[in-house]
Design brief:
Oligomer: single chain
Helix content: 55-70%
Number of helices: 7
Strand content: under 5%
Order of helices and strands: HHHHHHH
Shape: globular
Length: 187
């Protein structure tokens, strides 16, 4: 076996946004490899492995959005919980990159269905408050990483993972990353 040291110093030569985009690609590649394995090796496939795939993909998206944001605004700060909030990060990204060629469907986002628009104002406010409270109790960035919350209780809800469907999503993200990276490099 030939040993080959992979050095961080190679990556450090890039600006921070380039480093984040490189890590985003690596996390996405890892998610795809594991997900593909879950598709082909059904005997060893389980929810824990599926949750790891989702965690890798979630973190990949977080880093990708941050890298793109930093490309446009090098001084941007990502402190607190908003730094892990894909809804907040994607809103910022889309504000910075409004052109059609930069648009893509962001997995894991919590979107309110259009049907909600026909609800009475008080019912809509109640629904939005419920969703916000639910997201606090079961934070997306934590649910895929841990089997329980900080209180030691397992997450409240029914959760599942279908690797064949998610593999399609991961491969679509590969194309999105490549397309947007080319646009960033050209611009």
């Amino acid at each position: 076996m030939a040993w080959r040291m992979l050095n961080f110093s190679d990556l450090q030569q890039q600006p921070v946004q380039g480093q984040l985009l490189a890590f985003a690609g690596a996390y996405l590649d890892s998610a795809e490899v594991l997900c593909d394995s879950l598709c082909s090796d059904v005997q060893h496939a389980n929810y824990a492995h599926g949750a790891v795939v989702m965690s890798l993909a979630f973190h990949s998206l977080e880093l990708f959005l941050k890298g793109c944001i930093l490309k446009a605004c090098p001084g941007e700060q990502f402190g607190g919980k908003s730094g892990h909030d894909l809804d907040a990060l994607s809103k910022r990204y889309f504000k910075l990159y409004p052109k059609k060629e930069f648009q893509f469907e962001v997995p894991f986002r919590c979107e309110i269905p259009e049907i909600v628009g026909g609800m009475a104002a008080d019912e809509l406010a109640e629904l939005l408050a419920y969703i916000e409270e639910r997201n606090k109790k079961v934070p997306e960035d934590q649910r895929h990483r841990y089997p329980a919350g900080v209180d030691g209780k397992t997450w409240d809800g029914a959760f599942g993972f279908e690797p064949n469907l998610f593999l399609v999503t991961l491969r679509e993200l590969q194309h999105v990353y490549a397309r947007i990276r080319a646009l960033l490099d050209a611009g």
